[in-house]
Design brief:
Blueprint lengths: L7 H28 L2 H13 L1 H21 L1 E3 L6 E3 L4 H18 L10 H16 L4 H4 L4 E5 L6 E3 L4 E5 H5 L4 H16 L2 H26 L3 H41 L6 H12 L16 H21 L20 H8 L2
Parallel strand pairs: 3-5
Antiparallel strand pairs: 1-2, 4-5
Length: about 350
């Protein structure tokens, strides 16, 4: 049946609300317990012991509700075939993107590059090439795409789930050619195509709901607020390192691989993608691969190696799409696939 639509505020405010709720409930319960006389404390403990079966049933019912929530919002990504847990609807994701778009544009007033500027024209040509070549994907053709170029020395680009592309001019200064710009834009567009924002917000909200009771009990059991804050910070850090950060790196790798295919279908020289990350690796002397587990992104060297492993299949897709040959002999395909239909099958095997 259709997925039940959950309130949008649940995804945008769940993390701070969960922290505040666990603090207020746990600390309030501890303070109230300390004020009770010993005889009354004993009475409550006896009541809890006598009704432990009812409390266990309530807990089991709550866990069952969370399991139903998880199962009823599982879906299979049509591009990669990976199963994922997504509770946000496409309309909710679009509304989040539109709100962020308005805020970013307002903040960037005065440094937005006009559409008549040659820099804008160069970036627009790349973005349009990627979008047109991949217009067979529903996640591409069901959006109204926009491009905003911001004149700032920041090496960054990102795409909102509403289809709003942002590129900082600093990115061009750090790319050797427009094929490398295409690699970055394809990666960012892949995040939207794969629904990573919706998936990440859903995952974060679900984890916060799971941790609400344990964190509240933590505040009940810890006798001093100072120790409570330190312990809470420690558990948050462990949760990030063990759960959030590995998932974030997984999504980056997935966007790298799908982005490589998007760029291949658009006939860019995708060999520039690993070259770009190779240069980034050289500039990241302070970032050790051993510290990757503390980062939201994989180490650039690992990204280069992974893209290089995927290069042969991506080059075949490029060839099958009838793209002009690159500057070296490539294996000939016996059939040129109309509209790159073969690329869909390759994407599903990533």
């Amino acid at each position: 049946g259709p997925r039940r639509k959950l309130p949008l505020i649940l995804f945008t405010l769940i993390k701070p609300l969960a922290k505040i709720t666990s603090y207020v409930l746990g600390r309030g319960t501890r303070k109230a317990w300390k004020k009770l006389p010993t005889t009354q404390q004993r009475t409550y403990l006896e009541m809890l012991n006598a009704n432990r079966g009812a409390f266990m049933c309530t807990g089991a019912f709550s866990l069952g509700g969370l399991y139903y929530l998880y199962e009823s919002h599982k879906q299979t990504c049509p591009i990669t075939g990976r199963q994922k847990f997504v509770a946000l609807t496409p309309d909710q994701a679009r509304r989040i993107g539109e709100a962020n778009f308005t805020e970013i544009v307002n903040d960037a007033q005065g440094i937005i590059v006009p559409e008549t500027d040659p820099v804008y024209t160069k970036i627009a040509k790349v973005a349009n090439g990627i979008l047109h070549a991949n217009s067979d994907l529903r996640q591409i053709y069901d959006k109204t795409w926009t491009l905003t170029v911001i004149d700032a020395p920041v090496m960054n680009a990102f795409v909102l789930p509403s289809g709003n592309i942002f590129v900082f001019t600093g990115l061009l200064e750090n790319c050797s050619n427009m094929d490398q710009v295409a690699a970055v834009l394809s990666h960012e567009i892949a995040h939207v195509v794969l629904g990573h924002v919706e998936e990440k917000l859903t995952r974060t909200s679900f984890l916060q709901m799971l941790l609400l009771v344990p964190m509240s009990l933590l505040w009940v059991l810890i006798p001093y607020d100072g120790i409570g804050f330190v312990t809470t910070w420690f558990f948050d850090s462990v949760a990030d390192i063990m759960l959030e950060l590995p998932f974030s790196r997984l999504m980056e790798v997935e966007a790298d691989e799908v982005g490589l295919v998007l760029a291949a279908k658009a006939c860019f020289d995708i060999r520039e993608a690993p070259k770009f990350w190779g240069r980034m690796a050289q500039e990241e002397e302070a970032f050790s691969e051993e510290l990757e587990f503390l980062s939201t992104h994989p180490a650039s060297q690992n990204r280069q190696d992974n893209l290089q492993e995927k290069m042969a299949s991506a080059l075949q897709i490029r060839q099958d799409c009838g793209c002009p040959p690159l500057d070296y002999p490539a294996p000939r395909s016996s059939v040129i696939i109309q509209n790159c239909q073969k690329a869909k099958a390759v994407l599903s095997n990533l």
